[in-house]
């Protein structure tokens, strides 16, 4: 039996003056960024925007989330991508994940 994917969700703010730049970047996400996410067991990844709030959701299908996230963090293409996206973002939630802009949110209900 295949185990169910882990559902992960995160929130961050988008700087109003950088909102259009951020949206433009995501209309054409670099293929290498997408490839690394898939290689690291990320599926069904979406980012939603509501005003100046970004909400991300993805499903993780691997066995070691922390190790796969480190593989993404170590990837030169992803690192370069973040030099463009990170300046567009601002932390808006309690810092539960030290140093991260995107902070995890807790699932309170799921219709499976």
Automatic annotation (TrEMBL):
Supply the Pfam families for this chain.
rhaM
Question: Matching InterPro entries, A to Z?
Answer: Dimeric_a/b-barrel (IPR011008), Rham/fucose_mutarotase (IPR008000)
Q: Mind telling me which PANTHER family this protein's record contains?
A: L-RHAMNOSE MUTAROTASE
Question: What is the name listed in the Swiss-Prot or TrEMBL entry for this protein?
Answer: L-rhamnose mutarotase
- What is the source species? Kribbella pratensis
